[in-house]
User: Fold this.
Amino acid sequence: MTWTRKDLLGLEELNKEELELILSTAESFKEVSSREIKKVPALRGKTVVNLFYEPSTRTRVSFEVAAKRLSADVINIATETSSVKKGETLIDTGKNIEALKADIIVMRHNASGAAAMLARNLNISVVNAGDGWHEHPTQALLDIFTLKEKLGRIEGLNVSIVGDIAHSRVARSNIWGLIKLGAKVTLCAPKILIPAVIEEMGVSVTNDIDEALAKADAVNVLRMQFERDGETAFPKQLEYFKQFGITSDRLKKAKKDIIVMHPGPINRGIEMSSEVADGANSVILEQVTNGIAIRMAVLFWVSQARDKDMKNEITH
Amino acid sequence: MKEKVKILDKEGIARAITRIAHEILEKNKSTEDLCLIGIRNRGVYLAERLAERIKNIEGVGVLTGALDITLYRDDLALISGQPLVRKTEIEFDINGKNLVLVDDVLFTGRTIRAALDALIDFGRPKSIQLAVLVDRGHRELPIRADYAGKNIPTSKDESVEVRLEETEGVDEVVIIAKEIK
Assistant:
């Protein structure tokens, strides 16, 4: 299996072998974070630019830590304080970053497809850190990595995704990745938060949380994104918790070792109870740790592919 | 690529490992603070075999670890194939230890340079020694082996292949000549 992509835009375009390569490389990278000197020189001399058009702390910090553990230099651009405010287009911003001789842009943007557009227009690598409602590939990869670490496999697992599916790039990337790796995916949410033709992706849908939990080996609980749509589209928060919130009582009816995941930040008492969030089934903080290893693997492979492109340009 | 000549067979490899085990003990005087670190991939298996021999001789085991140097290579951007990133597993503190790095073939010395960088990120060992099954010459860096199973003068056009039971199903060392196209 040869990795040839200079960009990581989503999991839809990756095949099973590419997904498995990232997951197995991440296993090796995880060891680096357990050392006293948490650094390897693999990306020494490379510059990674975090270009975030949406507020994000955990994803940005995770990418920053990952890049630094590979010895890359990291520059963070928050668009609130940049020329984007003066009306600069996305492609112009990208070309300026390329002119600075940066090597990788990690971008979060509120428009679906923004990362793909930037990647088409630049020679340097682009890693999608979330584009609109479209994809958030590294989040799904770290979810899948955590699952595989806990349960030893992905093939044949029953994974339920609960919450705001309609507005969730995390859900979409997880569905692509899990299905390609042979898991069975069930989505569970109020009807209004499930996109109309989502079954075409090869998933089952239910509106009954107990049904979603009954057979599940793992449940991935999405954040209710009140900041995106305003509260009116949702049942009231309390009502949501009553109908869909993950509680200890609900988990008692599920498999004893069910894995509970959440991409964070958690709304305690809305998506799940504190008891569950901090309980024995929760792997939420391990997801954060694993995110670094996954992002190290992604930065490493896109950088490798980009170096190879450059070498070919010189020889041809 | 065509096979040219077999340098070591199963017995030859076994004898070389036994001799190196004795030399390591002779030089270090005891197994105290002695640890073996194999360089992935084949060095790991050679380190395990050495540890077993040392245990047979001294009756005391030594710690072994596995080192992957891919991320420390100086030619990551140059190699044509895809690098394989494997796991480093050193589950003990290397501070103050006498480490013996173990690899199959010593050639340019660049792998060992990378291994030294990697090891030093784990701590400050008291000493680092180098054991290889085959030293084929053509060094590009000031590095030498403390223990060598066999010195084989080679031409740069040839390649030396170490095959082990654990990886290839057979114990042998062969020189392979590159066919001229």
User: Anything to note?
Assistant: The mean pLDDT of chain A is 93. The first helix of chain A runs from residue 16 to 32. Chain A has two domains: 16-136+291-315, 137-287.
